[in-house]
Specification:
- This is NERD domain-containing protein.
- InterPro entries: NERD.
- It comes from Viridibacillus arvi.
- It holds the Pfam family NERD.
- The two termini are about 15 Å apart.
- Strand 10 (about 230) and strand 11 form a beta hairpin.
- By secondary structure, this protein is of the alpha+beta class.
- The chain has two domains: about 45-195, no CATH class; about 210-310, Arc Repressor Mutant, subunit A (Orthogonal Bundle), CATH 1.10.10.
- The protein contains ten helices and 15 strands.
- The structure holds zinc ion.
- Zinc ion (ZN) binds near residues 222, 224, 240 and 241.
């Protein structure tokens, strides 16, 4: 979400891809809000046994086969795979072929069918569990609609679809299933998942949307979209907000890594920050936030830890 917001500020307002990026930001934001609402509803469930809940679950079976699931609930009795669809308008879950059609503002838009996404993810996860010798745990699947005003014209028949208010009752019902693995086995399974579940790696948006880096606005840009004016070595001022731009260098570098490329050279950094002090740039990059790759002349830098970087 953050990267999309920053990309919009770094593109010219009449860029040919701006509308698609704004639409994608709306989808990502709606998806995130929906997931938060579902996470809250899961917290209302009364559990009579140990459980683990993984938002943004990822399971890698092979280098080419990865299952990504919005949320996964694990207990000693079952595994529940949850796909969350926060969508407006009227929905048709078509099955021959599997496709999700959304009718909104007089338009019909086709999406990948969440039923098929769950069936594929479940197949991958089931094979992984078998490799790990945990095949005795039954896998349940559900699609959750966090938006109560969504109209379901054609309901799915392969995977149950529930609204967010039904979550607690749905989970409490499957909580009555008999225990099939011991507490120690559940702990061992969670350990294997934690080792296998790699954090999601973001691709720079220029690569995702096929935008040449030259089309990205350079320099320090305030959250209001105005270019900052340098007032001291490390401080930039926004003439519109009449305020200092917080963490100007750090934020601009994060823009580079999330929008332009996974690596940066000192020359690229000087150019992107529009700041010609090689000493300052060297000092900024030779820091724990970055990992240096290569020899002095062609040295490149990449982010050390994406999650802790922008705080
Ligand atoms: Zn501003």
């Amino acid at each position: 979400m953050y990267a999309h917001k920053r990309l919009i500020k770094r593109l010219s307002p009449d860029h040919q891809k701006i509308e698609a990026i704004i639409r994608q930001l709306e989808n990502v934001t709606a998806g995130f809000n929906g997931e938060c609402r579902v996470d809250q509803m899961v917290q209302e469930v009364l559990f009579n046994k140990h459980f683990y809940y993984f938002p943004n679950f990822e399971c890698q079976l092979s280098p080419t086969r990865i299952a990504q699931i919005d949320s996964v609930l694990l207990t000693q009795s079952y595994i529940l795979l949850i796909e969350i669809k926060n969508m407006r308008g009227t929905l048709h879950f078509q099955e021959q072929p599997y496709q999700l059609i959304q009718e909104l503002d007089g338009q019909s838009i086709a999406y990948h069918c969440p039923q098929m996404q769950l069936l594929r993810a479940s197949d991958t996860f089931e094979r992984w569990l078998k490799n790990m010798k945990f095949q005795q745990l039954p896998i349940y699947k559900t699609i959750i609609m966090p938006n109560n005003r969504t109209v379901i014209k054609t309901a799915p028949t392969t995977v149950p679809l529930i609204m967010s208010k039904e979550i607690a009752l749905f989970i409490q019902k499957i909580n009555e299933l008999p225990v099939v693995i011991s507490e120690a086995q559940l702990e061992a399974l969670i350990h294997s998942i934690n080792v296998n579940n790699k954090s999601y790696k973001h691709r720079p948006l220029c690569e995702k949307y096929n935008i040449p880096i030259e089309q990205i606005k350079k320099g320090i840009i305030c959250h209001c979209g105005t270019s900052g004016i340098r007032i001291s070595e490390r401080t930039w001022h926004c003439p519109k907000c009449q305020a200092v731009i917080p963490n100007a260098i750090k934020q601009t570098l994060y823009d580079w890594f999330s929008i332009c490329a996974e690596e940066i050279t000192i020359t690229e950094c000087i150019d992107f920050l529009s700041c010609n002090s090689r000493t300052l740039i060297s000092r900024v990059l030779n820091n724990n936030n970055y990992i240096a790759i290569g020899k002095t002349r062609s040295r490149r830098f990449k982010l050390n830890n994406e999650e802790t970087f922008y705080q």
